[in-house]
Amino acid sequence: MFIFLHCKKRSMTLKLNVSKSRILYFCLFILTIFLGIMSRKFSLIPLFIGDLLYAVMIYFLLRILLIKKKALLLLLLSILICYGIEFLQLYQAEWIIELRKTLFGRYVLGQQFLWTDILAYTAGALIVFMIDKIILVKTNQKFV
């Protein structure tokens, strides 16, 4: 009976930790979106910062959706998604060009392919991955 209660208590604690983690990652996701938009509003901030933050945002989104997955998998997925969106900019069909003219299309799909964006996405994903690993290790979470 004691073992059952102990396991049940541990399960509830894990669910609480996952729930708290999702809230934390959601707040970081929203903050990253805000910072990314602000990076485009002020000309003093180099453009690559917005691209770097885009990769950070994708990582946090994946962390929210796939909370129990290993951080390394999320790093790889976030880089893959960012690269995919960047290479999609080489596709120039009329419908996607029109979509890119909208606010959503401009922010999500981007305007033109740049190799420097690939570097910024890589840097952003690696930076957030390392920070996340440090946080996960310090909080003793299982999905490191």
Brief characterization of the structure:
With 144 residues, the chain is mainly alpha-helical. It has helices spanning 2-41, 47-65, 71-88, 94-100, 103-109, 115-138.
Architecture overview:
About 80% of the residues lie in helices and about 0% in strands. The model has no long low-confidence stretch (mean pLDDT about 85).
What is the residue-mean pLDDT, rounded to a whole number? 86
Give the low-pLDDT segments. none
Series of H and E elements: HHHHHH
Overall shape: it is elongated
Oligomer: single chain
Termini separation: 31 Å
Rg over CA atoms: 18 Å
| Number of continuous helical runs | 6
- Percentage beta strand: under 5%
Biggest sheet character: none
Task: Tell me the number of strands.
Answer: 0
Classify the helix fraction into a percent range.
over 70%
Q: Please state the structural category.
A: mainly alpha
